[in-house]
Amino acid sequence: MRTLILSLALACMAGIADLAAQTRLVTHRGYWDCEGSAENSIASLKKSKDVNAYGSELDVIITADGVPVVHHDSAIEGILIEEADYDQIKDRKLSNGETLPTLEDYLLAFKEIPDMKLVLEIKPHKRVVNEDRAVNAVLYMVERHQLEERVDYISFSMNICKELRRRAPYAPVAYLNGDVSPRDLKRLGMDMDYHYKVFDKNPSWIKESKDLGVKVNVWTVNDPAIMRSLVEQGVDFITTNAPLELNKILKR
Ligand code: MG
User: What's the CA-to-centroid distance between 4 and ligand 1, angstroms?
Assistant: First the structure.
């Protein structure tokens, strides 16, 4: 009897471990590939919730006068954002008709959406001083809205990742650029968020990261065959433009 109870308990614990190990979905620039949405729009943030995303990713750049805005490219209609004042770009429209959102707009909308994270990318800026200003402004705003526990940070810039790590020791920070080993990320206190092709060249990195306790996010995976392979390898997160495809695989 005692053996039976023990085996049931172990089976139950294994079940919980499996559940905890399941890959989670991050929508890349929100869920934009649907009616009424657009990349990095507030609509795409809200629609991420409809597809049960763990997190909704967004890109942030700071203007010359210190306003963090949500946009992927360094320029908008030919105007370099980090060299422009907010007034010069504030009326630009996204493809779904929304006005270019500020980070403030985005956080206010995000606060109304329960049980989802923001995966906040701070874009590399031309000048390091602007990267540091961006980190400063983003952390200040997240703290002011008391959202510290709901935001994960990512960046291609090692300077930004280090600055985030130093300034927000509580926050998950993942590096995007694919050129730092799991062991070195562990040493830096960062997680991994790499393009899926990085793992063709470094096939041991997913397992090594898992062994070290470094979380693995993989971008931008839209092909169901690659999604399946990554889920089987137990990556923590997949960032995708095709959340419905990934959900089909995760539900199986
Ligand atoms: Mg991004």
Answer: 50
